[in-house]
Structure prediction request, 223 residues.
Amino acid sequence: SQQGEEDPQALSIQEGENATMNCSYKTSINNLQWYRQNSGRGLVHLILIRSNEREKHSGRLRVTLDTSKKSSSLLITASRAADTASYFCATDPRDDKIIFGKGTRLHILP
Amino acid sequence: EPEVTQTPSHQVTQMGQEVILRCVPISNHLYFYWYRQILGQKVEFLVSFYNNEISEKSEIFDDQFSVERPDGSNFTLKIRSTKLEDSAMYFCASSLVRGDGLHFGNGTRLTVT
Prediction:
């Protein structure tokens, strides 16, 4: 069954603005991860937040997790052209099957 | 930085033919995965592999698919009789610890004609 679902499907913002992407999931999880994919390339792991954590930072990335609402958000601050990519959340639902959502396509406008 | 490598980068095959997609995971990693992505859409889980056996597989991973770690470094995905709908990007991934972030290769684009 589908786990993570990102929202919005696509997002265009001006360079320098903040980008927020959301992810909702259905079942209990051990952790939630965010990945980036540049066109035609493999996915790159960005950040992992465990089910007992509420917020985590890494550079310009801020991830929140609300297990009561089964949702997470990824905030990219001060966006740059190089941030243009697709962003996926992935959930680890307590088995060895890490499931990805459909992704958010982020486009940073110059 | 160590990386996951996949070969070939692009494979074209005729319907009904067997294909083997190859991956070399990061050397000290213990958990191995195959995913596929059709036309830049969602990334679909196929199979996970640990301790020389399949630990989880999806509905997509039917008896036409198999995985093997033949020599302690390579991790292969075999599709016995390809169908048109098997056309996709196939990604290999590995991790050191279960539940850790996955390291992905750059994928093999499989085109079935």
Observations:
- The CA atoms of residues 45 and 55 of chain A lie 17 Å apart.
- The longest strand of chain A covers residues 43-50.
- Chain A touches chain B at residues 30-31, 33, 35, 37, 39, 41-45, 48, 86, 88, 90, 92, 95-103 (CB under 8 Å).
